[in-house]
Write a structure and sequence with these properties.
Layout (H helix, E strand, L loop, with lengths): L12 E7 L10 H10 E8 L2 H9 L10 H6 L2
Parallel strand pairs: 1-2
């Protein structure tokens, strides 16, 4: 079995394995959990602690993404 790291916006995969270690509350959001769930067509394997998943479900904070895209576009 060959494991591949593929990054595509909106892609779906038969099986998604999502590992969620303890980290900053800013990263542990409902949106991240939703993204993992919606990428799995058949099976989602979620590896984490119950309290972390519960926190993610309750954490509806969404932070503004600071990508620097506007700066990059202006300074091409």
């Amino acid at each position: 079995m060959q494991l591949q790291y593929i990054r595509h916006n909106g892609s779906e995969f038969d099986v998604v394995i999502m590992v969620v270690p303890p980290s900053s509350s800013m990263l542990l959001t409902r949106n991240l959990l939703y993204t993992g769930l919606t990428r799995a067509k058949k099976l989602l394997i979620l590896i984490s602690q119950d309290k972390i998943i519960e926190f993610m479900i309750k954490n509806v904070d969404s932070k503004k993404r600071n990508t620097g895209l506007m700066y990059k576009l202006k300074n091409q």
